[in-house]
Amino acid sequence: MDAVTVTTPPETRRELVLEAIAAGLHVIADKPFAPSAEGGRELEAAAKAKGVILSVFHNRRWDSDMRTLRKVVSDGCLGPLWRVHSRMDLDQPSTLEAGPTGGLLRDLGSHLVDQMLWLLGPVRAVDAQLDFLDLPQGRTDAGFTLTLRHESGTHSHLSASKLNRLAMRELRAYGQAGSYVASSTDVQAQSIFAGRRPTQDLSGWGFEPRTSWGILRTAAGEVEVPAEQGRYHDFYAAFAHAIHDGAAAPVTAAEDDRCSDRARRSPSERPRRALHRALAGHP
C-alpha cells in the first residue's frame, strides 16, 4: 500500500491522518482536513518529517463550470477582469456539519475560496459575513458571504447556504469587455451520486449539458460557451504522479492553510483583515 484517502467525519480526520503518516503512507485528506490552521500546520509538519505527501481534496478546481470560466478569462474574452461572483446554494439541511469544528464556511467555503485563489491568484484582504444558528452541538455557521480582494486588483464575491431551501450554482464574471454568466448542475457530483464513474465513459464524463452552458455577452453580441470537461479524476492522477515521479502534489496542505477558521471570526473581530490573518491563521 502506497497511499490512503481519509474521508471520515471532520472531527476524526486529524488522528487518522497522523496514523497514516506515521505508517509511512501518502495521504489525501478530505477538506476540512484539520479543525484549525494550527492543526493543519501540525499535519503538514508531520508529513514533511516522515517524507510523505499530504494533499487536500479540493477537487472543485476540476469542476466543469470553473474550467469553462477559467478558459473564458484566460482567452481574454472579458478584457481586463473586474470581479467574479460565485454562488452555491444547496437544499441539503441534513448535511450541515454542526458544532465549532463544522459549519458551512469550512465545508463549502473552503472549496469556493480555493477556486478563486486558483482562478485569480493571491488575496490581500477579506471581508466575511456569516449566518449563525445555535444547535445542540454548538453554534454553527449555516451560510456566508465573503469578499476576497486579490492582489491583481480583481475582487471575488462568494456565498453559500444549505438551510434556505434554495438550489442554485451560479458563476458571474464582469470585465471591461463584457460579462459571462453560467448556472450549472454540478454534473460530476450528480453523476457520482447516481453511481456512475469516469471510467465508464471517460470521453463523455463531466460536461455540463447544453442547457447549462454559460453566456458570454460583449459588444459583438451574445454567444453560448461550450462547457469544458470536468475532471475530478485528474486530481488522483496528479497525486499518483507526485508519488511515483516526484512531481508537484495537487493542492498541498500549505495551500489549504490559507482557508482556515480565522475567517469565521472576522465578523466579530475586524470586518476587514489581511489574508495572512483572516485566511492563513496567523495571529
UniProtKB/TrEMBL annotation:
Enzyme class (EC, first level): oxidoreductase
Organism encoding this protein: Rubellimicrobium mesophilum DSM 19309
Record-given protein name: Myo-inositol 2-dehydrogenase
Molecular function per GO: inositol 2-dehydrogenase (NAD+) activity; nucleotide binding
Domain Gfo/Idh/MocA-like oxidoreductase N-terminal: 2-58
Coiled coil: none
Domain GFO/IDH/MocA-like oxidoreductase: 66-180
Assigned EC number: 1.1.1.18
